[in-house]
Design goal:
Helix content: 10-25%
Order of helices and strands: EEEHEEEEHE
Strand order of the largest sheet: 1-2-3-4-5-6-7-8
Number of domains: 1
Number of helices: 2
Distance between the termini: 46 Å
Largest sheet: 8 strands, antiparallel
Shape: globular
Number of strands: 8
Strand content: 35-45%
Radius of gyration: 15 Å
Structural class: mainly beta
Length: 144
């Protein structure tokens, strides 16, 4: 039995609340601070499609305007954030990120790559506990 409810947030986008986690469904819900870090570690290229939008899945570029990433999961519990996306191209895979965001600072930034499907908290928790995805901590600095 699960206890969840769908509500609209301040940006008028649908969010899902479940076990103290709030799940977001749009790229516009990615906090600006996290987005800045993602741009920095992706060499300024962090164009991402929403969950249900087209993106370049393979390494054959058919449309220059399509992003090579697609949002699959975004959730927040207090100051903890989780994000996963599919990275298209050669060797398509999932990228999973977790961090803490408090006021204007980001900490405990960790990242993992996986061919396993990372699209909800239950799966992510299970794979982390089984050590099937290994997080790597990255020191991040945001330039003012």
């Amino acid at each position: 039995m699960s206890c969840s409810k769908n509500v609209k947030d301040s940006k008028n986008t649908m969010v899902k609340k479940y076990e103290n986690w709030t799940e977001y469904k749009t790229k516009d819900s990615i906090p600006e601070l996290l987005s800045s870090v993602l741009k920095e570690i992706n060499k300024k290229d962090f164009k991402i499609a929403n969950f249900n939008e087209k993106f370049e899945v393979t390494d054959v570029i058919s449309n220059d305007t399509l992003p090579r990433k697609q949002l699959r999961f975004l959730a927040r519990k207090d100051t903890d954030w989780r994000l996963s996306y599919i990275q298209g191209g050669y060797g398509k895979h999932y990228v999973y990120i977790e961090c803490k965001i408090e006021r204007d600072s980001i900490s405990d930034f960790k990242i993992a790559n996986s061919i396993l499907k990372l699209e909800n908290n239950d799966t992510i928790d299970k794979l982390l506990n089984e050590k099937k995805i290994i997080l790597k901590e990255i020191k991040v600095k945001i330039k003012p």
